[in-house]
Write a structure and sequence with these properties.
75 residues, mainly alpha, 2 helices, 0% strand
Length: 75
Amino acid sequence: MAAALPLAVSLPALTVMFGDRLGTSATVALIVVGLALIACTAGAAARSAARDSDEQARRDEAVLDALEPLAGLRR
């Protein structure tokens, strides 16, 4: 998804630069594609962050269980 980020950043610039030469439908299509790429990139980043926080929570729980000698008795 990191490869799509430059495209997502450059599409609004292309829309502004060539907006006069392109028709209305092409300009709208460029805007929609740019917004879709930004949404996909943000979704991928959110999924990655959630996965990382889940893994961190599991590691933290394992460390706390290892530090507590009677951890198994209370559950």
